[in-house]
Amino acid sequence: MTVTVAGHSEPRPTSAAWVDRLTNNLIKDLDALSPSSPPRRLGSAWRDATFNVAARFGVDPQAAELGTWEAVVAAAQLGSALFRTAGMTEGTTEVLIHHEMRTLPAAGPSWDANAETWTEAFWYAVITRDQPKMTELCQLPIDVLRASGADHDDYLYHWVATLQAYWLGRPELVPELTLTFQRSHPHVAVIAYADYIQQVAYPPINLFHKFLRKDEEGFHQALVEALELHKQYWTATPERADDIDGLVPIGILAVTCLAHDAGIPVNVESPYLPEHLLKRSWLGKPEV
Q1: pLDDT one-digit tens code per residue, 10-20
Q2: Residue 61 lies in a domain
Q3: 10, 85, 201, 232: most buried, per Cβ within 10 A?
Q4: How many domains does the chain have?
């Protein structure tokens, strides 16, 4: 039986012109990238790209338009580039971003290349089914993330280690996931607020655990609960309800993509899970 989880925002077709302007501004940002660009320029382009994705979801909730897919791909490409350059201390690298090869300089660790951003970049790689990017991100030493200078609760580093161990087949998967659960408890985490931990950070971790166990019934229940918790968080205040960052939970979507591709039934329909991203409708169209 398919369960429907309603979203908390109606489509905003009147915002289409604004979204097109965002896309044009992003392209200008990308064209400004060069071998002599300061590292912060790549981080700024990454933030603009993820904002552009969120805005696209506002006018195209099911990701049925090519422009939405291209926005998601650009975010995946920029996320990969951000962490590739963060892992370099000298030289340059060639990366494909928005249909063009671009030469970027080594950046070394930076605030932009932190653990929270790494998880988001990994999710975009998962959603676009870009396995080489997933592998490259998972090969990045966690010390690079710790050197970013960003303040994170400790569980986040264990969550990164869990995802890296899963994708690379490392033996520390179970102990790292255990530590992630233990240290993401609201009474243990000291930086993130309790409602964020309970309603935003924890649900993808729990969902991933059900995915690993191939627990189809447990996955279904956890997915419905995760989407409802997402809705609770993003409707707790009028300001949150109007924030486009809450339109699609990227982490929940990515884990659901992993489950879908592994043959676990996804018997949930929701604007929080854009159909054409979940079901790989665009895969193989523009190159990633």
Answers
A1: 877 668 899 99
A2: yes
A3: 85
A4: 2
**Distance of alpha carbon 75 from its chain centroid, rounded?**
9
Give residue 100's Cα distance to chain centre: 22
Cβ-based neighbours of 82, under 8 Å, separated by 6 or more: 42, 43, 46, 112, 113, 117, 121
Q: By C-alpha distance, which of 120, 129, 76, 167 is closest to 276? A: 129
Q: Could you list the residue range(s) of the whole structural domain that residue 95 is in?
A: 1-107
The rounded distance, in Å, linking the Cα atoms of 128 and 65 is 15
Residues 103 and 198 in one domain: no
Contact 51, 120 (CB under 8 A): no
- Structural domain includes residue 139: no
What would the DSSP string read from start to end of 16-47?
HHHHHHHHHHHHHHHHT--TT--HHHHHHHHH
* Cα separation, 106 vs 96, whole angstroms: 16
In a domain, 232, yes or no: yes
176-194 burial: b if 16+ Cβ within 10 Å, else e: bbebbbebbeeeebeebee
Dihedral over Cα of 263, 269, 274, 275: its sign = positive
Same domain (yes/no): 102, 5? yes
At 92 the pLDDT is 96
Backbone φ and ψ of 213, nearest 5°: -80, -5
**What is the predicted pLDDT for the residue at 59?**
93
Q: What is the chain's mean pLDDT, rounded?
A: 95
Q: Name residue 186's amino acid.
A: P
What confidence tens digit (pLDDT) does each residue in 89-114 have? 999 999 999 999 999 999 999 999 99
Alpha-carbon distance 45 to 53, whole Å? 12
63: left (phi over 0), alpha (psi -120 to 50) or beta: left
Task: Name the residue with higher pLDDT: 288 or 109.
Answer: 109
